[in-house]
Write a structure and sequence with these properties.
mainly beta, disordered N terminus, single chain, globular, 48% strand, 306 residues
């Protein structure tokens, strides 16, 4: 196999760069990312038309001593094993992904121009190993703000592609199916509350969440407003009962211990709500005037059925 690889021409060359480190220039102008980057060929672009590959091709790349990733045409699939792929000349959309970085798409041209490798400036993901101290000669270290977008229906597709930012102040993050996000602020970011903007894909609207506290030089976290509690029937956990908040969309089911957790909308203003519980046998009760503090998990008194 190695002899065959040496005989093949290079089809694509990728130039992955750690965007966080590059902007701080503490590891040179082209700092390489942590870990291994996976590449997928997603689509072909012809003029303004994007034609998706079904399924996308997983590119088997080889690293070079200088940090480039080279693709010689070998692809892999979950069922087909490895095989050689042949591409027509043109522009292709390649995705770079890693557990430590946000996924990124870039256009790569075939045939290869050796002077223009496909550059991927990767931005930190939720699990990125941020430094604990400042990487600049002045400043208090990286200021971070993280959180998670939740849905009560656990629809991972609906959690993908949400753009999160503090406009004009932070980095920009696009969520994947787990809804997690982290924003990076300048090292000299002032203290004070910020407004986080969530832009949903495909015209899904914009939600601004104001008043989120931010401590400079620290890893800050915020929480989506939620309610939680327990349901008991005859002093035993009421597994599978439905819990809903009147006037809100969706419901959740209690687990084997009777515990439940209900996430309110990102823009929840707080105040008071009414919570309704319905047992599997149809019995139901409603608790009104439940106080809600925004950006917190609020405990609801235990529901008890005879």
């Amino acid at each position: 196999m190695m002899e065959q690889l040496r005989m093949r021409e290079v089809v694509m060359v990728f130039d992955p760069v750690d965007g966080f480190a590059a902007r701080r220039n503490f590891a040179g102008p082209n700092p390489r990312p942590f870990g291994t980057i996976a590449y997928r060929l997603l689509a072909r672009r012809q003029g303004g038309t994007r034609t998706e590959l079904d399924p996308p091709l997983n590119l088997v790349t080889t690293g070079t001593p200088s940090g480039y990733d080279v693709w010689l045409g070998l692809v892999s699939g979950p069922h087909s094993g490895r095989r050689w792929a042949s591409l027509e000349d043109g522009d292709y959309i390649v995705e770079a992904s890693s557990p430590l970085y946000q996924r990124l798409e870039a256009t790569v041209t075939v045939p290869l121009d050796p002077a223009l490798p496909g550059r991927f400036e990767l931005e930190p993901g939720y699990d990125y190993p941020f430094p604990r101290t400042s990487t600049l000669s002045t400043g208090r270290g990286p200021t971070l703000l993280s959180g998670t977008v939740h849905r009560n229906d656990n629809d991972t597709a609906a959690l993908t592609g949400i753009t999160v930012e503090v406009p004009g102040q932070s980095s920009i993050y696009q969520t994947d199916g787990n809804g997690r996000w982290v924003l990076v602020f300048p090292d000299l970011q002032p203290a004070g509350p910020v407004t986080v903007r969530f832009t949903f894909p495909a015209g899904g609207g914009v939600v601004n969440v104001a008043g989120i506290p931010l401590v400079p030089g620290a890893s800050n976290a915020t929480q989506q407003t939620a309610l939680y509690g327990q349901v008991l029937a005859a002093d035993r956990p009421a597994r599978g009962c439905a819990v809903e908040v009147l006037g809100r969309v969706g419901q959740v089911l209690a687990d084997a211990t009777g515990a439940w957790l209900y996430y309110l909308d990102l823009g929840e203003p707080g105040g008071q709500v009414a919570v309704r519980v319905t047992l599997p046998d149809g019995r139901a009760t409603t608790l009104g005037n439940v106080p809600v503090q925004r950006l917190q998990a609020n405990r609801v008194p235990t529901f008890r059925f005879p």
